[in-house]
């Protein structure tokens, strides 16, 4: 069983607990404000790796046409139970997005967290494909070294796979995918440090 499928099995079991713990998103206010500044008013944006979709709802509050996408169906259901069924979510794999190349922005908050490093280039190529020229990518990842399994998740003995990134490594990968970084920083919290990047899709003739 691969890392993504095994981690997804864990989220199937902890979806309700995760949604309860993650519903307050005030810590992302700076991230959201910058994203809204960069994306056209009323723009079409996808929250890739949306989980329960709390960020999707916040982006909609900023008058963006925001829709969520996640690999875990139980996580989507947990979000709909809290946010209402009027919010639109799609179950899909970020390495194979079922989207046309017309997005004004992609919000990918902690979306590469459980993706093995070997699969990150494929995901970024998909992000690039579905953005329109000049589209904006927001990306946040856990800062650190290597990859590892953890054996505890929200009070249960369940495994999850994590990938960590260094700034130079992530920036090189974005540039290789023809993204130009236009802003970014590191957020330090009590538990971890988050590497934040805003990038624009470049096109070449």
Question: What does it look like?
Answer:
There is one protein chain. The protein is globular, with a radius of gyration of 16 Å. 34% of the residues lie in helices and 29% in strands. Helix 1 packs parallel to helix 4 (73-83). The protein has a domain at 1-95 and 130-139: Rossmann fold (3-Layer(aba) Sandwich), CATH 3.40.50. It is an alpha/beta fold. The strands form two sheets. It has a seven-stranded mixed beta sheet with strand order 3-2-1-4-5-9-8, sandwiched between helices. It has a two-stranded antiparallel sheet with strand order 6-7.
**Poorly predicted ranges:** none
- The radius of gyration computed from the alpha-carbon positions, rounded to a whole number of angstroms, is 16 Å
Strand element count: 9
Strand order of the largest sheet: 3-2-1-4-5-9-8
Q: Estimate the helix proportion, in percent.
A: 25-40%
Structural class determined from secondary elements: alpha/beta
CATH topology assignment of the domain at 1-95 and 130-139? Rossmann fold
Q: Sheet bearing the most strands, described?
A: 7 strands, mixed
Oligomer: single chain
Order of helices and strands: HHEHEHEEHEEEHEE
Can you name the CATH architecture of the domain at 1-95 and 130-139?
Answer: 3-Layer(aba) Sandwich
Number of helices: 6
Mean pLDDT over the residues: 93
- Overall geometry comes to globular
* Proportion of residues in β-strands: 25-35%
Q: Write down the CATH class of the domain at 1-95 and 130-139.
A: Alpha Beta
